[in-house]
Amino acid sequence: MQSKLKQLFAFFTLCTILLSGNATAMTMLRSNQTLILFGKVVPEDSQQFRKKLEEGPVKTVVMTESPGGDMRAAYAIADLITEGKMNTAVNGSCMSACALIFMAGTERQMLASKHLEKTRLGFHGPHNKRTKEIATASIPRFREWLLKVTQGQFPEEVLDRALNIERAGDMMFFYYPNQNYLGDIRFCTEGSLRCETLNGYNIVKIGILTTTDLLKVESLDEPYKADAKSE
């Protein structure tokens, strides 16, 4: 029988196909010490995340199928993850504000999946969701934050390429090593059918993931166990 979490991830994948990006808010579901975040990030999500944490300890936050969204809420959620020393994992597509949240994890992994080649993190410069105008004033904060959480490992030439975009849809994608035949790191411009592959970089050594070990869904099903105190 499939575990509860496996059923949830299958459900989220189906929702992604059916909704085609029309989701209006982020769904947050708990399973033991795991918190799963799915969908678009909206301003109210930081408060919703805080309330989920009040229900009990969280060890791992799994980001799954999110197009991104509100950066202010993403920063607030990221701060809570950092303060709680939580780990993060990603399953499916995790773009923009979603990728920011993912990068707050103490340990950052990709989830083991039959479709691992489709799991990806997308980074680009902040922009106005309505006008699509690039928010150049917000780029330095995001840049410094990414350098901080990667302990300076994120190559500045790659970071600047990802953030200093010309169109809102320009995006730098990161895939699990050797799973996508088009390359592990690709920069795609909005409206283009072709993407530029960036060779010579390892997504662990540049700080995107903290390990190439895949996180197994079964390990997330384990109930929370408080640290035993010695007598």
Structure summary:
With 231 residues, the chain is α/β, with parallel strands linked by helices. The chain has helices at 4-19, 45-53, 71-83, 97-102, 139-149, 156-163, 217-220, and strands at residues 26-31, 34-39, 60-66, 87-95, 108-110, 120-123, 171-175, 185-188, 195-197. The chain has one domain (4-220): 2-enoyl-CoA Hydratase, Chain A, domain 1.
What this model shows, in words?
- The protein has helices at residues 4-19, 45-53, 71-83, 97-102, 139-149, 156-163, 217-220, and strands spanning 26-31, 34-39, 60-66, 87-95, 108-110, 120-123, 171-175, 185-188, 195-197.
- The chain has one domain (4-220): 2-enoyl-CoA Hydratase, Chain A, domain 1 (Alpha-Beta Complex).
- α2 (45-53) packs parallel to α3 and α5 packs antiparallel against α6.
- The N and C termini lie far apart (40 Å).
- Strands 1, 2, 3, 4, 5, 6, 7, 8 and 9 form a nine-stranded mixed sheet that branches.
- With 231 residues, the protein is an alpha/beta fold.
- 29% of the residues lie in helices and 20% in strands.
